[in-house]
Amino acid sequence: MIRLETKYTKRIITDNILKSIYQPRINRIVRRLKRKSAVGVEMTGWIKYVQNYDKKELKDMLRVAREWKKKQVKKVIVIGIGGSYLGIKAGMNMLRSDFNNKGIQVFFAHNMNNNYLLELLNSVGREQFGIIVISKSGTTLEPAIAFNLFYKRLIRNVGRAKANQLVVTVTDKVKGNFAKASKEYGWAKFIIPSNIGGRYSALTPAGMFLFILLGFNYRAIIKGAKDASKHLINPDLDKNDAFRYACYRNYFRTFHRYAIENFVVYDPGLSMISEVWKQLFGESEGKDHKALYPSTSLFTTDLHSMGQYLQEGTRNFFETTLYIKRPLRDVRLSMISDNLKYLNGKKLSYINEIAMLSTVHAHYEDGKTKNLIIYVDKQDAYHFGYLYMWLCFAAMASAYLLRLNPFDQPGVEVYKQRIANILKNK
Ligand code: PA5
Asked: Which of 100, 102, 283, 339 has the fewest CB atoms within 10 Å, measured from its CB?
């Protein structure tokens, strides 16, 4: 499933020493979660959500997906920002050749830039298209603006009555603009439960409706997430690598004063998983002037731009590599040039694995950078569900180790308030 390799940190810390420092603290965190006395515990609905999935809502999602199929919807615009799109796009990209797509082209609107939105409007064209708008609060400015542009365009393309059948909202049960408008206009509506925050919500209908529509093996995603939710509540650091990862992060920051963690992937299709990781850790624990700065790299691409810095620049960071052992696709090489014949017969995945291990060794042995490796067994739906939950558990524990609430984001409101003040002429 998922295993944390820690041997490239041995010069400063071992699993046993780490355990002696952190096991009592992790025990306390889990005890408080179970007793419901942990800070922010009212937002931990995501832990058990996958275990008690609302079967009726699942059936409704399957029904609406079938209706869209009957209507031959070939283009879908997914509108949402932050936690309301990152995990969903991460799933699509990680599993890109593992679902059949049902001939549907998917566009994401996650920004309110004028060039960007107008270009996207051109891409959906003058025919029918589906709109999935995801906003837990139903009050965020970016999805509100994008939704209005696309909804008006859809009405122009197909008329109001048909347009209303092509809108799906995923939002709070009662609060916010989309909940109200869904009632008024008869849009299909699915719920993000009030006890689950945006960045922890990708396996609620926020992601699940699109996954179903595109023909993902959604049952395997749920199974992976369900297994993770059972395994990863275990406080024993010998058995819970998500918590062990949180402890290593805390150790590097507290005892070695590292400022940055560089999270590395080797597949462009995993770059959105890096974005999920960045948001989960950045938003859950970037508070009270604490926490590591979450930085991301795509190797081997970035080795040709940032490789020099990472090898010999300021030593104020450590690295974590996410590596999937069994990829979606593979090929054996056969080279034309004589001087490259040594590659013949070798699998491309093997060459990537050698690149990964060589880089870890170069950074650790020569560059004196500590490295963790998160090994995921397989690039499939089950492991996407498991990995997403694994990252959620790790982010939660990491924030608790810093004595922070993992589930709020008060800092995000500051710039939002300023935008609103100016636009509303206050
Ligand atoms: O994790 C979070 O809570 C945020 O990233 C939100 O998902 C993001 O701000 C979008 O909010 P909403 O879904 O309410 O539009």
From this structure: 339
